[in-house]
UniProtKB/TrEMBL annotation:
GO BP terms: amino acid metabolic process; carboxylic acid metabolic process; catecholamine biosynthetic process
Modified residues (N6-(pyridoxal phosphate)lysine): 369
Organism: Branchiostoma lanceolatum
Protein name as catalogued: DDC protein
Required cofactor names: pyridoxal 5'-phosphate
InterPro entries for this protein: Aromatic_deC (IPR010977), PyrdxlP-dep_de-COase (IPR002129), PyrdxlP-dep_Trfase (IPR015424), PyrdxlP-dep_Trfase_major (IPR015421), PyrdxlP-dep_Trfase_small (IPR015422)
GO MF annotation, one: carboxy-lyase activity
One GO term describing the cellular component: cytoplasm
Alphabetical keyword list: Decarboxylase, Lyase, Pyridoxal phosphate
Cited Pfam families: Pyridoxal_deC (PF00282)
Family from the record: Belongs to the group II decarboxylase family.
Gene3D superfamilies: Aspartate Aminotransferase, domain 1, Type I PLP-dependent aspartate aminotransferase-like (Major domain)
């Protein structure tokens, strides 16, 4: 065993005391650190020249412990990346991000890859020892930049285009991560909490909620929904013994995240009524009210209606005012899932569709869809904020956690308004772009998406080659190609969809309406412009004609 007095600088100069090493390691250390040079094995540790050498063992138990601790500190000092290396890492990351941006732009005329079949084989194991940063970034590059599905690609028309944050929004994810920002409770981070509250207030204002509301920023609509279900359950005073008699009303097109949320909050046994849709694919209010009356007569406990602003499949908006009337008459909680469609409320021409939204009890909307933030940002607002607080917080902090008392009289803590305690500063991903760009450009971008949708719909209609079961309300077009004589239209369109997605120029998903197979285009990526919609249209026409041709030659 040898002891060295060493002057070690880790990041900013810091003197560490003696190090205990076995001889081999000590010699190696000397070689590695002498003269302040950096070794490949100690990339982030800078050492000043060794000043003194002692061969004595430490005298006390405490000395020994301290020296062991110092050794551990030196070993773990690689976690504190010095500025020069940070710059190198950042530059490499920037290179990769720029390549991604470039490929996203260039891919306008190239493939949107939907899968990376080699991925499982290629991705390495997690190892005990470090891997060179360059190699790790190469992996990222291969698997993130050059492979996988990019749901924010300009020619992604499938699902709901999501994520693909604008650059300031991406910085909104990065900066709080570097600052270790924590928005769980306001004691030390009042400004962050205030910023998030301001964003929630802005969203609440968009939907006409009066003062007294409260909300939280969650990771997605699924978690926002789950929270809303829990608040509705508690506010209506439901107890576990009654869950099997409780009734939830949604439509055939309600997103399944709502149903999963219900299960998660204990309402798996609740009765779920799927209210039929009208010809415009909106919840039929007369059927809703009739069902509620029947359920009441049968001794059940109707308590919750879920309406959707922008159904995933057709982009339609349920008749909010009519549904709110029914809820009012029967004292039911009205929750609005505006995950996809909510931010279209920014566009004046869409306002009539939102009439009545202010009468709902809770609403969620996804900035990671309509505001083009990176994935992981959803806003839930509950009109009566106290109900959210009562649902999520404890009446009293358990005495063993008394020291962690999070709450203050001045500020309600975000952790009292959500089921999370540690939570990242997700709001920064909204705050930065909304301030850097201003709200106006988001309104304009959403107007562009609405117009592109109408443009695409018009082009399909003009050909006479497609069935179009509904006019788009927001930014979804549902359609199917007419089939050649003797060919089943569902089969024809299924084959067409396979063909459309086969070379990855565009990406689309289907919609099954009344057991009929349709194709569906959703325009929401902020980079999608008229050239991409034109490309989509021409690919559809080309593949449709080719499929007809091949079926004819087979016949
Ligand atoms: C209407 C609707 N609700 C909820 C969700 C689920 O959203 P998230 O992925 O943010 O949980 C989606 C996703 O597309 C949706 O369209």
């Amino acid at each position: 065993m040898m002891i060295f007095d060493m002057w070690v600088s880790v990041g900013k100069t810091k003197i560490l005391g003696p190090l205990i090493c076995d001889v081999g390691t000590a010699a190696e250390l000397k070689k590695i650190f002498h003269g302040g040079t950096r070794s490949p094995n100690s990339r982030y540790v800078l050492l000043q020249p060794i000043t003194k050498r002692r061969d004595k063992m430490p005298q006390t138990e405490e000395d020994r412990l301290k020296q062991t601790l110092r050794n551990l500190e030196v070993k773990t000092s690689v976690l504190e990346v010095p500025q020069a290396d940070r710059d190198q890492m950042t530059n490499k990351a920037m290179e990769m991000m720029n390549m991604f941006d470039d490929s996203t732009r260039k891919l306008t005329w190239g493939p949107v890859k939907t899968s990376d079949p080699g991925c499982r084989k290629v991705v390495g194991e997690i190892k005990e020892t470090p891997t060179e940063y360059e190699l790790v970034m190469q992996d990222f590059n291969d698997h993130l930049v050059n492979a996988g599905m990019n749901l924010s690609h300009p020619t992604c028309f499938g699902l709901i285009p999501t994520g693909g944050g604008t650059y300031p929004a991406a910085l909104g994810a990065f900066i709080p991560a570097t600052l270790a920002s924590y928005s769980g409770f306001p004691r030390k981070v009042t400004t962050i909490v205030e910023m998030e509250n301001k964003l929630i207030e802005w969203v609440a204002g968009l939907f006409g909620y009066p003062a007294g509301h409260a909300g939280n920023i969650t990771s997605g609509a699924s978690l926002s929904s789950l929270t809303a279900m829990a608040v509705a359950r508690d506010s209506m005073g439901l107890k576990a013994a009654d869950f099997h008699r409780c009734v939830v009303y949604c439509s055939e097109f309600t997103h399944y995240s709502v149903l999963r949320g219900l299960r998660a909050v204990g309402l798996r046994e609740a009765v779920l009524r799927t209210i039929p849709l009208d010809q415009l694919f909106k919840m039929t209010t007369t059927a809703l009210e009739k069902q509620i009356k029947e359920d009441k007569e049968a001794g059940l406990v109707p308590f919750l209606v879920v309406a959707t602003v922008g159904t995933t499949l057709t982009g339609t908006v349920d008749p909010l005012n009519d549904i709110a009337d029914v809820c009012e008459r029967h004292q039911l909680w009205l929750h609005v899932d505006a995950a996809y469609g909510g931010f279209f409320a920014l566009c004046d021409e869409m306002k009539p569709l939102f009439a009545g939204v202010e009468r709902s009890d809770s609403i969620l909307v996804n900035p990671h869809k309509g505001l083009f933030t990176p994935v992981g940002v959803s806003v839930l607002v509950v009109k009566d904020g106290k109900k959210l607080q009562q649902c999520c917080s404890m009446e009293q902090t358990p005495s063993c956690f008394a020291e962690c008392q999070l709450f203050s009289d001045e500020h309600v803590s975000p952790s009292e308004l959500s089921f999370e305690i540690s939570r990242p500063f997700r709001g920064a991903q909204m705050w930065l772009p909304l301030n850097v760009f201003g709200v106006g450009v988001f309104r304009t971008a959403l107007q562009e998406k609405l117009l592109l949708t109408r443009y695409f719909y018009g082009k399909l209609k003009e050909t006479g080659d497609f069935e179009l079961p509904l006019e788009p309300e927001l930014s979804v077009v549902v359609f199917r190609a007419t089939a050649p004589p003797g060919v089943d239209i569902n089969d024809f369109n299924q084959q067409l969809l396979e063909g459309l997605n086969s070379d990855g120029k565009i990406f689309m998903t289907p919609a099954v309406l009344s057991n009929q197979f349709y194709l569906r285009v959703c325009v929401l990526a902020f980079r999608t412009h008229v050239e991409h919609v034109d490309l989509c249209f021409s690919v559809i026409q080309e593949k449709r004609l080719r499929l007809r041709e091949s079926l004819r030659s087979e016949a």
